[in-house]
Give the backbone structure.
Amino acid sequence: MKNFPDLPPLWTAATIAAMFGLNWAVPYFIFDFPNSLVGFGFMAIGVGLIIWSALWFKRKKTTIEPHHEATSLLIEGPYKLTRNPIYVGMVIFTFGMVMYIGNPLTLLPWLALIWVLHTRFVIPEEKGLLKTFGKKAETYIAATKRW
């Protein structure tokens, strides 16, 4: 898997596939209108946050790809609320999938996604920001929540 693209959207898609796979393998279906409605609400909030956050990369003309060096420190818009709004959006979206599917077992891949995002992307990206932007990144990291 050396040439496998290590990207958060692929991890998110794998998580969603695992959720549906678990629900298929061990059906425990609590699909009712309130659950599905709440689930769709979370999914919409997650997608909205992802789009809003991604637009800031375009505005600041810096890379959105993890493992690449940023040319601009994003501290405006959703980045005032959290240092990782795209990852927060992915977590919110996939929690909406948990609610929509209605199987408590789907919490397991959801929790795994949080761990993967945190260890493979959030921590290394923070180190990269500190290396690239120094004191400015240090001040931003101290003032803004990670999640």
Observations:
- Residues 33-60 form the longest helix (28 residues).
